[in-house]
From TrEMBL:
This is Carbon-nitrogen hydrolase family protein. PROSITE patterns: CN_HYDROLASE, UPF0012. It comes from the Bacteria. GO terms for molecular function: hydrolase activity. PANTHER family: DEAMINATED GLUTATHIONE AMIDASE, NITRILASE-RELATED. It holds the Pfam family CN_hydrolase. InterPro entries: C-N_Hydrolase, Nit1/2_C-N_Hydrolase, UPF0012_CS. Residues 5-261 form the CN hydrolase domain. CDD domains: nit (cd07572). Keywords: Hydrolase.
Amino acid sequence: MSSGLDIALIQTRTPATAAGGLAHVEPLIREAAAGGARFILTPEGTNVLEQRRDLRASVLSEEDADVAVLGLRRLAAELGVWLLIGSAIVRSGRTRQDGADDDRAANRSLLVDPRGAITARYDKLHVFDVDLPNGETYRESATVRPGDGAVVADTPWGRLGLTICYDIRFPHLHRQLAKAGASMIAVPAAFTVPTGEAHWETLLRARAIETGAFVLAPAQGGLHEDGRRTWGRSTIVGPWGEIIAKADHDEPCIVTAKLNMEAVGKARSAVPALTHDRDFLPVS
């Protein structure tokens, strides 16, 4: 395992079609690889961001037919890099309990190796069903089928825990990823502006401190074709909770850093909280 890792987060403003998503993100990935990044991460909804229900069904494909997913797998192989497609919104191909087709999509992270092979998949566990104080309402469960399992994947630099966006609010998930050996945790996101401004950096730093892991958070940013606004501010947090690198805006960009993977062991040795769990009686 190498102790140093040149990493890049890609901040995007993904269009409403997979072809547009690929055309948007590909030049940024190429630039990151040319700059020396060996592991590149993209945000939630890298292939397509479209929440208008009358248009959404027509722009989604199965994972193995999605233009952006296929193009990004080829690109990883061409560039010889590890690539985390932070998430692709794809048809789930699942059925409901009553046997009927479940027309909800999967919000799926895909880890791609330098041969272009998918080595890990993770479907977002926690869907974003909220009523924000500013009047915005989101019901992700209406269009996205939640996953049912946590995932930790192997990379040449250590194990990677996979999460997506709203998962950041569930510390027990991140703790389990760390206990399963994750030294890095990915948090690809399309955070809303109100929640991003209030909570984004605080939550990222908290999850890093609690787990003693690097937290890698590539984000969507700006006004999208479907009318939503996202917060941007892609961020890399060290295992002691320090901000290593971040974007201070919501424009498409690349955030880079060199990670010293030995910092994970040092943080966990200094505060070995992952080994201090105790059973306790339930709240009465």
